[in-house]
Structures are given as C-alpha cells and as structure tokens.
Amino acid sequence: MSTRKMATPSWTFLTNHAHVLLCLVQNPFERIRDIAVEVGVTERAIQRIIVELEADGYLERIRDGRRNVYTVFSRKPLRHSVEKHRQVHDLIKLIKK
Hints:
This protein is of the alpha+beta class. The protein has helices at about 15-25, 30-40, 45-55, 90-95, and strands at about 60-65, 65-70. The chain has a two-stranded antiparallel sheet with strand order 1-2. Helix 1 (about 15-25) packs across helix 3 and helix 2 (about 30-40) crosses helix 3. The longest helix has 13 residues, at about 45-55.
C-alpha cells in the first residue's frame, strides 16, 4: 500500500456548487469550514456558493443557535441546458454514498 498522496485533479466532472449541495444533503449541519476542506476551496468561496444557491432557490439556511441548518430543495431543475430535463434529486441519487 502506497503512502504517497494522490495529486488533486486539475478538473472534475461536477462543479463546486454541486459539491456543496451534495455535502449539505449528506450533513445539513455541516460547518462552512468542513465543507471547504471537503470540496477543496476556501471558506470564502463556500460562503459565496451558499449565497448563490440560496438566491436561486436551491438551498435554505436557518439559524439554529450558533449553527446553520441547511435544506436542499431537490425538486429544482438543474441549470445547464444539457441537464435541465433533470432535477437536483437525480444528481443526488446518482452520486449518493
């Protein structure tokens, strides 16, 4: 078994927006710091993505004490013209661990 760490790929098939949604489906209480580590971007980038997802109705953020709880609206259609015939739940079902 190799102890060498695999290099981060230069591109992926899914966007960071999709990665954030998938993280929040798995754990609606996940902290921005933890999402940033999992997705591989800065906390500031995650904050921006969450604001964009909220603004477009894909996500709702509710304060629960000092934490946020997120609800993903999985019946919304995907945005790109190639996949707009599918909904967020189709992506979740495809990728879900």
